[in-house]
Amino acid sequence: MKIARSLSAILLAVILTCSCASKKQQNIIDLPRAATPQTIQDAVNSLLADDEADPSVTFESLMILKHGNVLYENWYGEAAPDKPHAMHSVSKSFTATAIGMLVDQGKLSVSDKVIDFFPDQLPEEISDNLKAMTVKDLLTMNCGHETEVNRRNADDWVTAFLAHPVTKTPGTWYCYNSMGTYMLSAIAQKLCGQKINDFLTPRLWEKLHIAVPEWEESPQGINAGGWGLYLKTEDMAKFGQLFLQKGKWNGEQLISEKWVAEASKYQVPSVPSGTRPDNAAERGLTPENSTFMLGYGYQMWMCPEGAYRADGARGQYIIIYPDADAVIAVTANSNNLQAEQDLIYKYLFPALKNLK
Q1: Predicted confidence band at 153 (pLDDT cuts at 50, 70, 90)?
Q2: What are phi and psi of 331, to 5 degrees?
Q3: Whole-angstrom Cα distance, residue 224 to residue 214?
Q4: Per residue in 238-273, pLDDT tens?
Q5: What is the CATH number of domain 84-330?
Q6: From residue 198, how far is each of 88, 163, 253, 303 by CA, in Å?
Q7: For the CA atoms of 89, 91, 93, 98, what is the dihedral angle to 10 degrees?
C-alpha cells in the first residue's frame, strides 16, 4: 500500500509538473488576451453593421491585436477558432519568408538568376530577358511576363514557367503572378532539399506554436507556394505580430530585421491582379481609390498609413500597422476585396491609432 501510495504521489507530482510547464509554455508562445476597449468594440460594431449592408463583403473571422495583446476576436457563420481556413494568396507571404530565411543563412541572394537553379528544365532557346530574371523579380511580381502561366495542362510546372514568353525586361513590368511564387517554392526546395512546409516546421511553425498546416503541392511534390496554405486566424495573427516585432519572437530572431524591412517596404509600383500597368488609368484606378495601386514589397502589399498586408482571394488579410503597434487578421468570403479593406481602414485604423 505504501508503495502504491508512493507511486501515486510521484505520478501526481509528474502530472502537476507537466501541467505547470505546459501552462508556462502556453503563456510564452500563445498570444495573450486583454479586455476589449469600448472604442474597439464600437469600431467593430460599426464595421459589421456596414458589412451587413454590403452583400459583397462577408467576414468569417476577425482578430485585432494592439501591443501584442488580442483585444478582439470573433468568428462568424461556420468559421471557428480551431478550424483552418484557406489562405489563398496569403500563402505567398509565407513562401517569401522561407526565401528570407535562406537569404539570412547565406544560401541564396535575391540577385541570383532563376535559370541557374533549373539547368535541366530550360527551353531550347533562352531569351535575354529569361537570362536576366532574378529571385527579386519573382518576389516583386516583376519577372517580365505579361500574362500568368497556365499550369492546368502542364506536365511540369517549372518547365512551363521557364518556357513562358518573357516579353518585358524583368524588373520593369508588374504582372501578378502566382506561378512566380511557385518558382520561389521550387528554388527553396532545391536549396534545402525539403518542401518549404517542412523547412518552416522547426523555424516558424513550431516557434510560433502553429500546428504544421496543410499546404497543397504540385504533381512534382513541391508546395504550391502562391496558394494552397490553410491556417487558423490566430496563426495568421502570430505571423503578423512576428513581422510587427521585426522578426523577433520570444527573444529569438526568427527572421532578420533586415529581411522584414525589405519585404515590408515599397519595392515596385503595383496594379490589381488581372490588370495591366498600361490600362490601370483607363479603368480609373488610382492610389486614392485602390489600395492595390499603393505598391508591392516582397509578396506583401502596401496599405494606407505605412501599413502593409498579406493578401488573399475572397478577402483573407494579415494587416500589419506599425504606427499603431497593431495587427489585424481577417478571414472572409467576400466578392469585393477593396470594399472589405475600406471598412477596415475606415473603422479599425482610427480606433487603433487613437488607443494608447
Answers
A1: confident
A2: -115, 150
A3: 11
A4: 999 999 999 999 999 999 999 999 999 999 999 999
A5: 3.40.710.10
A6: 19, 28, 19, 31
A7: -150
Query: What residues contact 137, with CB distance under 8 A and at least 6 apart?
Result: 114, 143, 144, 170, 171, 180
Q: What is the mean pLDDT of residues 17-36?
A: 60
pLDDT for 100 equals 98
The packing angle between helices 233-244 and 257-264, to 10°, is 110
pLDDT for residue 29: 60
Burial of 12 (0-12, 13-18, 19+ CB in 10 A): exposed
pLDDT for 237: 98
Q: What secondary structure letter does DSSP report for 217?
A: B
Give the integer Cα–Cα distance in Å for 218 and 257: 32
Q: What is the rounded CA–CA span in Å between residue 225 and residue 302?
A: 20
Distance CA 322, CA 260 (A): 12
C-alpha grid cell, residue 188: 527553396
Return the SS3 of 147.
coil
- For the cut 90, the answer to whether the pLDDT of residue 354 exceeds it is yes
CA separation (Å) from 19 to 4, 16, 26, 32, 75? 22, 5, 10, 18, 29
For the chain, the domains span 84-330
Q: How far is residue 200's CA from residue 208's CA, in Å, rounded to a whole number?
A: 11
Mark residue 238 as left, alpha or beta (left: phi above 0; alpha: psi -120 to 50; beta: remaining).
Answer: alpha
- Residue 5, phi then psi, degrees to nearest 5: -65, -40
